[in-house]
Design goal:
Number of domains: 2
Number of strands: 9
Oligomer: single chain
Structural class: alpha+beta
Strand content: 15-25%
Largest sheet: 3 strands, antiparallel
Strand order of the largest sheet: 5-9-8
Radius of gyration: 18 Å
Low-confidence stretches: none
Order of helices and strands: HHHEEEEEHHHHEEHEE
CATH class of the largest domain: Alpha Beta
CATH architecture of the largest domain: Alpha-Beta Complex
Length: 213
């Protein structure tokens, strides 16, 4: 399967793959990009190797040429990858393994909004890993959808995040109306991981499939 995926990559993707020092990381990149191409090719009824991508200033890929009209996003962590595809509008996806984070209170206080920090400090210690990655994945999904850099924008996007609380985008740069243009959904693709999808649309229905080798 890995050889099949590698054969569909463009020269620039192959060059990126070859820059990885370790086989594990190189193979993950090839598998992720190859699977993305295979999935998009099915939507577009074309060969995976024929797809061409352009990249925004912050590195977000988009299809070019005759393949417009499809919005997509790829996220991966460890050996898990997620691909989101739609014809509706801008979309972003993120996934993370839930795990303890060193100095998590300081990270939230420094990079997230005042409201989020105040709520986070009240979360019981044992629930803070889940709360943190709810925060992170929901923000990251939105910022990947818009193509903005996450470093400067984390505190500008406010989301719900308390364990058991439905995923919602609350404000973008303090604008609740602008946030209302988006839908955010959370899910757990496998045990121990949390994911989020953000799409610029309301009242959307998500369908999920598992890639079978």
């Amino acid at each position: 399967m890995l050889e099949t995926f590698a054969a569909t990559l463009s020269p620039d993707e192959t060059a990126r793959a070859n820059k990885f020092k370790f086989d594990k990381h190189r193979n993950r990149f090839i598998a992720g990009r190859g699977a993305l191409r295979a999935i998009l090719a099915r939507y577009l009824n074309t060969a995976a190797a024929d797809l061409r991508f352009a990249y925004s200033e912050n590195g977000k890929p988009a299809l070019t040429g005759d393949f417009g009209g499809i919005h997509f996003n790829l996220a991966h962590t460890e050996d898990l990858a997620l691909v989101a595809v739609t014809r509706i509008g801008l979309i972003g996806v993120d996934v993370e393994a839930v795990r303890p984070v060193k100095n998590v209170d300081e990270l939230v206080a420094r990079f997230f909004s005042k409201r989020e920090n105040e709520l986070f400090q009240k979360v019981p210690e044992e629930q803070k890993p889940a709360a943190f990655f709810n925060l992170w994945t929901r923000k990251e999904a939105l910022l990947k959808a818009t193509g903005e850099g996450i470093t400067r924008s984390l505190s500008l996007v406010e989301v719900s995040f308390l364990p058991g609380e439905p995923a919602r985008l609350l404000a973008i740069s303090g604008d609740e109306k602008k946030a209302g243009e988006w839908s955010v959904r959370d899910f757990s693709p496998v045990a121990g991981f949390v994911g989020a999808i953000a799409i610029r649309a309301r009242d959307v229905r998500l369908s999920r499939w598992k890639w079978e080798r």
